[in-house]
Amino acid sequence: MKNQRKSEEEIVLKKRWLYVLLGTLIVAAMVLSACATATTPPEEPEAPEGEAPAGELSVGVVLPTKNEPRWIQDETRFKDAFEAAGYDVQILFSDGDSAKERANVQSLVSQGVQVIIICPHDATAAAAAAAEARAAGVKVISYDRLIRDTDAVDYYVTFDSVSVGEAQGQYLIDKATGAGNPLYLYAGAATDNNAFLFFEGAWNVLQPKIADGTFVIKNSSQAVALQDKATLTRDEMGQIIGQITTDWLFDVAKNLAEAHLTAAPAADKGNVFILAPNDGTARAIADVFAADADVTSFVVTGQDAEIPSVQYIIDGKQSMTVLKDVRTLVGDAIAAAIAYLTGGTPEETATYNNGVIDVPAKPSVVVTVDQSNVVEALIDSGYYDAGEFTGLP
Ligand code: BGC
């Protein structure tokens, strides 16, 4: 009995050893194959003539948030374009937090970058980070959103944001007939300079149509109080934006739209027109209006041509978007960075005042997209793959 147990124990022990041996061999094999892969030289994209070689971290990018498809799109396009240009780049996200943004800038500066491309979360709060980069001899490129109230901005790559707002306002005008059409206004975050430019553009075209009675504003007493003024000061825009801001957040947009529809009598609904500042907020606001039994139909604007909104447009749930071709913006930003790295100056076709200086800039054009041109503008152009969508016309 004892002997039998002993030999059983020996067998178990032997088996254990075999397993250990086998496990060790597998791990060793894995390590060896990983080493073999690691020592295979990676294919380096060739640096174009006159440019810094790949491998040097000379440019850093700081983007505001990963919570919106818009900025993920920028990240992807940046990676593709920097790789094609033969540069190493580090792209950091600020999670909608100015303190994190500043830490990101500090980290890039300490790694020795020569150019930083920043899309500020908060225009004014970003001034301190820009000043720190400038003090370290780093060139600061403001990306899409302007950094305000500092002279530490070297260049601004942007779309023509006033024309984005004009395209949105014009779309509502083109879809409206008769008089007394209910108009609901929404805006971006007051900490984002673009929110003012978009609103300014929309007001440029909508105000005459409010003054002549085509539209009647239903959700902002400040906008009603100023509706006879063709041109608003920044402060006046600030008063309106303060009432109708979405803060660029879906939930804020949703709650605000719900509050407006709860407060509005059925007579202020029917066939409504909605100025929504971008795609994310447009989807949130559109869902709320679609759920209201007293809303018969609605026209709602957007911008960014985010994939979920393009699907909404195909499905008839969002009326339009404004395509801001991120490839162009990224290309302009990289051209500016390379200009600085090679001792040149980026192309200037306009300037934008940031409260302290006129920042040299090169604004790009934008395109209105709705069901009628969605395939041509977004699929045929190669911007997106048809496979990203269902039910394409
Ligand atoms: C950008 C928009 C974006 C919005 C919210 C703006 O500054 O220009 O494209 O939708 O911020 O992130």
Question: Could you characterize the architecture of this molecule?
Answer:
By secondary structure, this protein is an alpha/beta fold. 47% of the residues lie in helices and 17% in strands. It has a seven-stranded mixed β-sheet with strand order 2-1-3-4-5-12-11, sandwiched between helices. Helix 2 packs across helix 12 (326-341) and helix 9 (250-263) packs parallel to helix 10. The termini are far apart. The model is unreliable at 1-54 (pLDDT under 50). Residues 68, 70, 144-145, 188, 192, 194, 248, 278, 303-304 line the site of beta-D-glucopyranose.
Terminal Cα separation, in Å?
A: 81 Å
> Structural class, from helix and strand content?
alpha/beta
**How big is the Rg?**
27 Å
**Low-confidence spans:** 1-54
Oligomer: single chain
- Per DSSP, the total helix count is 13
Give the overall pLDDT as a whole number.
89
Helix content: 40-55%
Strand order across the largest sheet: 2-1-3-4-5-12-11
Bound molecules: beta-D-glucopyranose
How much strand? 15-25%
What's the shape? globular
Please give the number of β-strands.
Answer: 13
Biggest sheet overview? 7 strands, mixed
Taken in chain order, the helices and strands follow as: HEHEHEHEEHEHEHHHEHEHEHEEEH
Give the key terms:
13 strands, 13 helices, binds beta-D-glucopyranose, 393 residues, alpha/beta, seven-stranded mixed beta sheet, four-stranded parallel beta sheet, disordered N terminus, 47% helix, globular
